[in-house]
Here is the input.
Amino acid sequence: MGIFDWLFGKKKKAAYGADWDTTQSAPSYQGPANQPAPEQREPFINAPARRTKRTRTWGLKWRQQRSKHPLESVPNEEEPFSLWSNPFKHHALYGGTEAKPSKGGSAARIEALGLPNLENLDELAALLGETRNNLLHYIIRDRPGDRHYVARDLPKKSGGTRMLLVPKPRLKAIQRKLNAKLIRRLPLNPAAHGFRRSHDVLSGASVHVARSVVISVDIEAFFPSLTFRRVSGFLRSIGYSRGIATALANLMTIRPCNVAGIGRTADTRYPQLPQGAPTSPGIANAICWRMDKRLSALARKFGGDYTRYADDLTFSGFDEMAKGAGRLLQLVRKIVKTEGLALNEKKTRIMRKGRQQRVTGVVVNQQTNVSRREFDKLKAILHNCIKHGPGGQNRESVPDFKEHLRGRIAHISHIGPERGRKLKAMFDQIRW
Here is the structure.
């Protein structure tokens, strides 16, 4: 660049294909000579001023007038703005009333399952023997959870603690009524043996007696993994309306962050089934119906059987399952994952023939029986009680030591009657 260009500026070159000087303003396009000028429309006088923020400055009435397809007029509910600010009114209309029942349910499907047909919150309150307002007190989600639950930590045998969320007496009474009148009537898969009538650890273990291989897996965080969405979605799938399903799910779930004293071990993001509520085991069994069906079919494909007791999954079979145990576990992981759950890999055990095979604490090698270690431990306690008296044997500070021993003997007698009779004879010799 020369000194002249630096002082007076260098003239810009014309752009490629341009026939005018780029330093001047570009000529406006006029169009063909024979084309008439475009019609100048008058501006809309009542149009709102353009704003930079995307805010709703005009009501729906003006928008419907300008639209080619205006919406139908929607009647105003009573006090629409105070409805959302008042949770009681919101849940009252959301759950339905006698005049306006909650929509979206299937009465035919509910009656086919033998369940109570609930169309509004009044019918749900009548089923539980409560007033509508008392029921709303426990349904509304924005209330602090520690009003209705108490957190307790129980030590595990394997180490660590297990968090229990125990409902307070009033809510526990409502949940027990709900459990008796609705939850126990839900359809369950025959493979489920936990928390149901005429089924226990013995009935589940009896299926796996004298097998070539027994495979035991455990579901990690079983109850916390069943969230509010899973519970309400299941209730809607069996025929209940959205409002009733939401009300029932709120009665059975809790967000752990709303309960004081739980620490940081719980997943506090979503409402979940509390471990310690009367309704949690029953609704969890019902939700796992499809998973139990798929795992039962998988076990039959390998020539074996499948049972589930709460979060303990057990497979057993003969040579075909013994050879394909690794492949079976891979498929089990996939099925459990698609059901929104996960396996606790640390508790996966493959017990082959020739070693002790245990299912939910019951030995199943030749017949159902308690382990020799458990029998000898209780036998030693009873022997010391006979010889030295029961006062010095309550090392775990059990409140009612006599009933504690009686219960342990009854459990062993239920599984192994012969060993139970020996322990019962020793218990009768103790001088209380």
Residues 80-181+227-272 form one domain. DSSP finds 19 helices and eight strands in the chain. The chain has three domains: 80-181+227-272, 198-223+288-361, 372-427. The two ends are 115 Å apart (CA to CA).
